[in-house]
Automatic annotation (TrEMBL):
Residues 1-12 have a biased composition (Basic and acidic residues). This is BolA family transcriptional regulator. It comes from Halobellus limi. Belongs to the BolA/IbaG family. Residues 1-30 are annotated as: Disordered. It comes from the Archaea. Signal peptide: none annotated.
Amino acid sequence: MDTDEVERRIEAEIPDAEAEVTLPRVPDEDHEDAHFAAVIVSPAFEGKTLVQQHQMVYDALGDAMTTEIHALEMQTYTPEEYRERS
């Protein structure tokens, strides 16, 4: 799985999400160490705890979290939180 596919899955499952996914370190050739980092912004995170927000992302990625993705660092924001951060 590549960064574009991770972004596509997140954006397809979380309403109005914008995801930016990167590789925080060089993956090995066999993808046995597939580490990703993601910044996800969505109004769907409004009123949710951080744990609930992260669970939404895990749910969006489904089985890939146990098969194709070894680790996922994530930062989740509502649009307002993201604007304030910038």
